[in-house]
Specification:
Elements lengths: L3 H19 L5 H4 L5 E3 L6 E3 L3 E2 L9 H4 L3 H9 L4 E3 L7 H11 L7 E5 L5 H15 L4 E5 L4 H5 L3 E7 L6 H10 L4 E5 L11 H8 L2 E5 L6 H5 L17 H10 L6 E2 L6 H9 L8 H13 L1
Parallel strand pairs: 3-4, 4-5, 5-6, 6-7, 7-8, 8-9, 9-10
Antiparallel strand pairs: 1-2
Helix pairs in contact: 4-12, 5-6, 8-9
Length: 297
C-alpha cells in the first residue's frame, strides 16, 4: 500500500488527464507550447515525458566521434529534455555523456539515470563511483538496481530503481515491485509489444512507482511496419507529425508511464522525438484508434 501523498499525486494526474481528454474547449495552439511532464509518485517532482537513452548510440570511444553527438544533446536540452539514461553495460556511453555535458557547460535541469551491473558489494560501490566520475557528477538522480538504500541515505542517489529489457524477467520483476519500496522501474513497452500492460504497468500504478520505458520503437521494427505510409490525418489532430511521435505519444499517454527514453545518434531524430513531449496526449479513445490502425497495417 502506498502513502497518502502518492495517492494525491496519482489522483491529480488522473484528473488532469480526464480534463485533457474530454474538454472540447482546450486551445490546441496554446497546448503546443506546453512541455508535458508527469510527477514522480514518491516525491511529486515533475519530469518531462520524453527522455534520452544511450544504449548503442553513445557507445563511441574516440573523442572526435563523441563530439559529433553534440547536436543530439543540444536538440534534447533545447527542447526541454531532462532525463538521460545510461549504464556501464553500454560500453563508452557514460564517458561520452560526461564529455558532452562538459562541452555544453553542464546544462541545468539534467536528470541523471544510470545502472549498476556487477556482483559483490564492493564491486558495486566501485562501479557506481566510476560512473559518477565518468559523468562528472557528485550525485546521481536515479540508480537502477536492487538494494541501494545505504547510498540513498548517504546522499549519492536521489531515487532507487530496477530495470530490465526482457519479457522473460517480467514475473521476477513483478514480485520485486510488489514487495520492495522502489521509486522507479524501467522495462520495455511499445504499441507492438504490450505485454507489460498485463502486470507491470498496473502494479506500478497501484504501488506509486514511476515508470521509464525503453525500446519504445521496438528497436526500429515499428518503423519498418509503417514504411511508406503517411501518418493518419486523424492523428494530426493532437499534433502528431511523424511516426516517431505517434509511437512515443502512445507510450507516454499510458497513465502509469512517466517517461520514455528513445535512443538516437541523429540530431533530427532527437528533435522529432522531443516534439512528442509537447502539446496533447492521446486519450483512451485515441489510444484505441492508434492501436487498431497499427494492428491492421
Amino acid at each position: 500500500m502506498f502513502s497518502e501523498k502518492r495517492r494525491k499525486i496519482i489522483k491529480a494526474g488522473l484528473a488532469t488527464a480526464l480534463v485533457a481528454g474530454t474538454n472540447p474547449t482546450l486551445i490546441r495552439a496554446e497546448m503546443k507550447k506546453q512541455l508535458i511532464k508527469k510527477a514522480i509518485p514518491s516525491s511529486g517532482e515533475d519530469i518531462p515525458v520524453i527522455g534520452l537513452g544511450t544504449s548503442r548510440t553513445f557507445d563511441v570511444d574516440k573523442q572526435e566521434r563523441q563530439f559529433k553527438l553534440l547536436p543530439v544533446l543540444d536538440a534534447f536540452f533545447s527542447n526541454g529534455g531532462s532525463m538521460i539514461d545510461s549504464s556501464p553495460m553500454y560500453g563508452a556511453s557514460e564517458a561520452t555523456v560526461g564529455r558532452l555535458l562538459d562541452k555544453l557547460d553542464r546544462p541545468k535541469g539534467l536528470f541523471s539515470a544510470t545502472k549498476v551491473w556487477t556482483d559483490g558489494k564492493q564491486a558495486g560501490i566501485d562501479q557506481m563511483q566510476n560512473s559518477l566520475s565518468l559523468w562528472g557528477l557528485k550525485q546521481f538522480d536515479l540508480m537502477q538496481i536492487h538494494n541501494l538504500r545505504d547510498w540513498k541515505v548517504q546522499g549519492k542517489i536521489r531515487y532507487i530503481g530496477i530495470t530490465t529489457s526482457h519479457n522473460r524477467f517480467h514475473e521476477e520483476l513483478s514480485t520485486i515491485m510488489k514487495n520492495e519500496e522502489l521509486d522507479f522501474v524501467q522495462f520495455s513497452y511499445n504499441i507492438g509489444n504490450r505485454t507489460s500492460e498485463e502486470t507491470l504497468l498496473p502494479i506500478a500504478f497501484d504501488r506509486g512507482i514511476a515508470v521509464l520505458i525503453n525500446r519504445p520503437f521496438q528497436r526500429g521494427d515499428l518503423f519498418s511496419k509503417v514504411k511508406g505510409k503517411e501518418v493518419p490525418e486523424w492523428a494530426t489532430e493532437i499534433g502528431i507529425k511523424s511516426w516517431g511521435q505517434f509511437f512515443l505519444k502512445f507510450v507516454v499517454s499510458h497513465p502509469a508511464v512517466s517517461c520514455a527514453i528513445p535512443a538516437t545518434s541523429k540530431a533530427r531524430h532527437a528533435l522529432d522525438n522531443m516534439q512528442a513531449g509537447f502539446g496533447e496526449l492521446p486519450d483512451a479513445a485515441m489510444r484505441e484508434r492508434m492501436l487498431g490502425y497499427i494492428e491492421t497495417v
